[in-house]
Amino acid sequence: MSIATKQEQAIDIIEAIRDKNLFGSYFKSIRTWQSWLVFFKVLSGYKKLGEKEMELFRECTGLEELPRKPLKEIFICAGRRSGKSTVVSLLSVFYAVWGGWQRYLSPGEKAHIFIISATKDQCDVIKDYISAILDLNQSLRRMVKKELAESIELKNGVTITIKPASWRSTRGFTTGLLLMEELAYWRFELESANRDREVYTAVKPGMTTIKNSLTLGISTPFARQGLLWEKFNRHFGKPGTVLIWRAPTWRMNLTTTKEELEEEFLEALGEAEFGAEYAAKFREDIESYLPVEIYDRAVAPGVTMRAEQEGVEYFAFCDSSEGLRKGGDSMTFAIAHAEDNEDDQRIGILDVLLEFRPPFDPGQVIESIARGCKNYRVDKIVQDRHAVAWIAKDFGEHDIEVEISEHTKSQIYELFAIEMNKDRVELLDNERLKAQTLGLQRFLKGGGMVKIDHYRGGHDDCINSAAGAIMLASKEKPFAVAFWGPDWR
Questions:
Q1: Is residue 147 predicted with pLDDT exceeding 90?
Q2: Is the Cβ–Cβ distance between 254 and 31 less than 8 Å?
Q3: DSSP state for residue 185 in the 8-state scheme
Q4: In this structure, are residues 215 and 47 in contact, taking their beta carbons and an 8 Å threshold?
Q5: What was the pLDDT predicted at 406?
Q6: Is the pLDDT of residue 4 over 60?
Q7: How confident is the model at residue 488 (pLDDT cuts 50, 70, 90)?
Q8: Would you state the torsion angle of the CA atoms of residues 67, 68, 74, 78, taken in this order, to the nearest 10 degrees?
Q9: Phi/psi at 327 (nearest 5 deg)?
Q10: Cis amide leading into 358 (omega within 30)
């Protein structure tokens, strides 16, 4: 039967997978995909499952009964090598061909499928999978009208777009299907601590007119933060139109076993990382640093710098960098002061935040910072222990003293979080500062020790200087020891 004929009939994805003239030829062994077939049955609204299928359903969803209403959102937490990319690709092609969205569209209006992934490389992988599915047979190939670098347009007016996470590029489209791939890692790949929610809220309004639209997030879980964790924490095991499906690798990929994966990876990764990567558990040793709501309350919208005021004492903090390697650490500098509010609480206020991204000339950066210090009557900078020798010498040539902070970076972040939670901080409107602040994580160490730091491969140069300056200003006794002055040798 041709696709044109099939489109006139109701068809679910199970039928498409079992039909050798549709998706069936894509699978070498459909037996190893039995767990995903159970998931597809739930997605398709099956009212009855076999005994073993119901056992898997209960295990993966925490629910006792199948959904009674059509699902609007699904979030899948699955281990690595579970077949997530294949599932995303199959769903995109299935809904593009058999979504039945035309009845919801106005004349000239087109429906879109957005597949959003963390990186360009991951997008390329997904697009290759989709192209391979559409190339399975002549009927599917005939559906393709135009193929571009980031999109595939079908002759029925549906466009499949695959691109890295960006809320700007997904706004304003009529969308039938939103697929968010490796959702737990968007913020880390793109250094945007709120990118997952930005994309989610940008696309959702465009899905209201298509009554059978679907949002699906799928990822290996990671830290207990972000959109995937929020959805899991709120909806797992609770009936409704939002379904959470969590399954370890060995439950979804029947070509492997728990014992095989433990033997190969458990010792190398450690229990916590293995639990996230293959057992689909959110890491209990990593937590978010600050909620976005608390951060946003502290920001003065549109204020990127505050002018110097007479009679105000200013404090400065610097996070230095040699600036040699492109993509490496920035050199940052912040100035802050304190004021008492109407409740006689001491409020730390950020006035200046400068960031110099590498590569740069350290001498020119020092001169720029020194000018800023003079403008705000600052003759002393507190610095962490990194590269303190050369920076103290260079600042000394501008008659600026350098002191080493007595607190570690992690301790400064802890103190800063306390002040933020008490609404005793006023920040500048700076996207880099926001991304780095919300990207910080609490790492829970043995013995109850806590370390706050950026994620692997991330940066915290802006928040380090901003938090350091604010804490200097807001505390009665500045935390600095080990003096390095202009006469340093």
A1: yes
A2: yes
A3: G
A4: no
A5: 84
A6: no
A7: very low
A8: 10
A9: 90, -5
A10: no
Mean pLDDT of 378-388: 81
- Predicted confidence at residue 1, as pLDDT, reads 45
Reply yes or no on whether the pLDDT at 437 is more than 50: yes
Based on C-alpha coordinates, what's the Rg of the chain?
27
Report whether pLDDT(483) > 60.
Answer: no
State how far the Cα of 420 lies from the Cα of 114, in Å rounded to an integer.
36
CB half-sphere exposure, 47, CA atoms < 13 A: 2
Beta strands (DSSP E) in 261-414 are: 283-288, 315-319, 331-340, 346-356, 380-383, 401-405
Q: How big is the CA angle at 80 (ends 59 and 43), to the nearest 5 degrees?
A: 45
Name the DSSP class of 397: T
Which ranges in 288-401 belong to alpha helices (H)?
Answer: 292-298, 362-375, 388-396
| Cα 422 from Cα 401, distance rounded (Å) | 32
Q: Are 40 and 13 in contact (CB under 8 A)?
A: yes
Residue range 89-117: mean pLDDT, rounded: 93
DSSP assignment, residue 288?
A: E
- Strand partners for 114: 161, 178
Tokens at 296, concatenated? 């946003």
Tokens of 44: 């398709």
| In contact, 93 and 3? CB cutoff 8 Å | no
Q: Which residue has better confidence, 230 or 446? A: 230
Residue 272 has which token pair? 């916590």
Taking CA atoms, 69 is separated from 43, 56, 243, 400, in Å, by 11, 20, 11, 68
Closest-CA residue to 318 (of 380, 363, 364): 380
Asked if 415 contacts 476 with a C-beta cutoff of 8 angstroms, the reply is no
Q: Average pLDDT in the 433-459 region?
A: 82
For tokens 């959110």, name the residue: 282
Which domains does the chain possess?
3-284 (3.40.50.300), 292-484 (3.30.420.240)
Pairing of strands 441-444, 283-288: antiparallel
pLDDT at 232 over 70: yes
Q: ω before 359 within 30° of 0 (cis)?
A: yes
**297-301, 361-365, 375-379: segment of lowest average pLDDT:** 361-365
The pLDDT value given to residue 349: 97
Which tens digit of pLDDT belongs to each residue from 198-209?
A: 889 989 999 999
